[in-house]
Automatic annotation (TrEMBL):
Protein name, entry field: Rrf2 family transcriptional regulator
PANTHER family found in the cross-reference section: HTH-TYPE TRANSCRIPTIONAL REGULATOR YWGB-RELATED, WINGED HELIX-TURN-HELIX TRANSCRIPTIONAL REGULATOR, RRF2 FAMILY
A Pfam family of this chain: Rrf2
Length: 144
């Protein structure tokens, strides 16, 4: 459903948020190992997230990536998905067809509308803070 870069981006922000909550800055190497993503690919994703003010990159020997605690309340999964995948997940065809619309629907078109709205609702109403707080009570593994 999501692109690989979006999957890795979501994993990365969750991991960074977990570490930030413990007052730890994390390096690119640590993040890519924790989320099981190639380092160069992870760097490009983090660059996009930094440019869009989702994560903060601190330079220097004591640097690393963090997410401001106050921002965790307002950053939703939808923000990350839009940055990395655009809004195609909300508007595109469930089968990936270019010509699917109300007038010329694919076989899944009308069933996918409901799923798409549920997905939009979940992404827009799930903040990073909510996820990190939920993880305090359960074990969560970011690797596949």
């Amino acid at each position: 459903m999501f692109s690989k870069s979006c999957e890795y981006g979501l994993r990365a922000i969750i991991y960074i948020a977990q570490q930030t909550k413990q007052d730890v800055k994390v390096s690119l190497t640590t993040i890519s190992e924790a989320i099981d993503s190639p380092q160069a690919f992870t760097a490009k994703i983090l660059q996009q997230l930094t440019r869009n003010n989702i994560v903060t990159s601190i330079k220097g020997p004591y640097g690393g990536f963090v997410i401001e605690i106050d921002k965790m309340k307002t950053i939703t999964l939808s923000h990350v998905v839009k940055i990395l995948d655009g809004d195609n997940i909300y508007t595109g065809c469930g089968l990936g067809l270019a010509q699917c619309n109300e007038n010329s629907p694919c076989p899944l078109h009308f069933k996918f509308i409901t799923i798409r709205e549920q997905l939009r609702n979940m992404l827009e109403n799930t903040s990073l803070e909510m996820l990190v707080n939920d993880m305090d009570t359960q074990h969560f593994c970011l690797k596949r």
